[in-house]
Amino acid sequence: MTEVNCTSASVRDVKKQCREIIQHITANRSLQAENSKWLLCNREVPSRLQGKLPRCGLSALSMANDLLRNPDDLSLKSDLARHEEQELDNLLKLAQLRGFSEHGEMYSAENLAELAKEFYGHKCIVLNGGLNDGNFIVSEITGGSAVLVAYDADKNHEPCQQNGHRAHWALVTGVLCELHGNSYEWKVCQQDAGYPALFHAVPSSDISFPKNCQAQHIHLCAKHGKSRHTAVWSMTNVANSNANLFELDPNKMRNGSFVVPEGGIFVGLCGKIVVMSNQR
């Protein structure tokens, strides 16, 4: 089956994107299969645009910090735009001081994790092949963790495979998946008013994802520094793109000076994700 992404300019609302994805997947199913349930567990965060500098990793990291904060704290900022720009500037200064970046680029998942630990005080781990375990990703996201992933971004920002020449960072804010088995606690969810098979929840450490609950057709809600909108992408497409980050664009290397880890982005980014939590 063709993997589905919904990122067109006409589809901005996350719930609408998810309904369209479910309808596409279930269009030719039998009545019995249609009785399955879908979970959308997502939390919106303020956008953090990267501007003209290659600060996609820093933008994603800043949004990840917001994802882990109390929503009430975000509403108390009196001058949000000025605060955001100052935060990105301070992140860049620290990244430059540590030798992680020259202009805002972050070509090492380990360096991004170290930056998160030092600047925000969050617990961070870097996982190889983390997107290969769907149940783990669903469990981490529904439980309130922030997941940052590098991928090749197409012209419309969707995941593609360009050998790393269009490497870009995104923050996973939520997950859409079909759940089989009766072990999930659906009482903590709110049923979608227009689509009864879809249930909504907000990521929280209070949510426990049962080990015997199998997640299928997993899609990731994602934000990044080049758009104010949340996209919904197939996790398979994101994983394939993440595993295809082999080399930095040669033209980019010739036209600028960047901090690249020994071994290139194949060592720094390929197959890696950063998982953040607010545990100190």
From TrEMBL:
<dbReference type="Pfam" id="PF21646">
    <property type="entry name" value="ACTMAP-like_C"/>
</dbReference>
<keyword id="KW-0645">Protease</keyword>
<dbReference type="GO" id="GO:0006508">
    <property type="term" value="P:proteolysis"/>
</dbReference>
<dbReference type="GO" id="GO:0004177">
    <property type="term" value="F:aminopeptidase activity"/>
</dbReference>
<dbReference type="InterPro" id="IPR040043">
    <property type="entry name" value="ACTMAP"/>
</dbReference>
<protein>
    <recommendedName>
        <fullName>Actin maturation protease</fullName>
    </recommendedName>
</protein>
<keyword id="KW-0378">Hydrolase</keyword>
<keyword id="KW-0031">Aminopeptidase</keyword>
<comment type="similarity">
    <text>Belongs to the ACTMAP family.</text>
</comment>
